[in-house]
Amino acid sequence: MSFKNKVAIVTGASSGIGAATAVAFSLQGAKVVMVGRNEAKLTKVAAKCSKPLVILADVTKDADVKRIVDETIKKFGQIDILVNNAGLLRNGGLIENDIMPAYDAIMNVNVRGVVNLTSLASQHLAKTKGNVVNISSAAAFLTPMVPGSLSYYISKAAINHFGACAAAELAPQGIRVNTVSPGPVKTDFFENGGIDIKYEDFEKMVALGRVSESEEIADVVLFLASDKAKGITGSNFLADNGMVIKR
Ligand code: NDP
């Protein structure tokens, strides 16, 4: 898969799946735009990419989202691929009465940020007949394993349907929109979200008895973003080691 002369924006490129995706695009010749808030982490990942554009931005802030598109166009003149990967997990259960702060924080990153950036990027994607890949989760097909994480599950279910609706709306412009739904992946995601769970626990929950590396998810993203997937839009690829079939 060659992405030579393609411009790929990856949100949440400072760690985990987003970092692996940015590096993979760069290795395949893309001009990569790396978005995140943590400058130190972004700089570390950027060192593994060829001349990336690093944009410090918070996808929940409208001005930042606009700046992601503006700075990309200023530097590279076009957008071919948008990977909406930035995501947040935070505890907040129905019964503890503290659900709304977690709900708002999660929906703002996982849904609002995705809708906002996709919308602003779409006029540029129309010019290149580009595509969007959203990172959802196998969680969207399930109910929570850990009490208090239902806002996350709701957000990923919303992003699944956003992917289908956006694919339908943008198809006449030649823009494809697809979704990848990982199961457990070895990143800092759960620790960052205050969820105390071990990978050995996850291994017992999935049919294949293993947990993915970020690079495996990046491979699926690159396939969907490539011309090999030119006939694929509105799809949702489970990359979950058989978590959904086992549950
Ligand atoms: P990480 O915690 O390693 O990465 C999350 C990324 O999101 C970071 O780069 C972070 O960057 C970025 N981010 C969070 N909030 C914002 C924000 N407001 N603005 C901009 N960037 C933000 O987790 P993963 O790599 O695991 O997660 C990536 C995606 O994969 C998420 O959407 C997650 O829901 C999904 N996923 C992960 C699974 C897993 O098991 N790890 C399973 C299923 C889905 P920074 O801190 O620099 O802002």
TrEMBL record:
Residue intervals passing through the bilayer: none
Matching Pfam families: adh_short_C2 (PF13561)
InterPro entries: KR_dom, NAD(P)-bd_dom_sf, SDR_fam
Residue ranges annotated for the Ketoreductase domain, each copy included: 6-183
Record-linked SMART domains: PKS_KR
PANTHER family, per database record: EG:BACR7A4.14 PROTEIN-RELATED, ZGC:101858
Name of the protein described by the UniProt record: 3-oxoacyl-[acyl-carrier-protein] reductase FabG-like
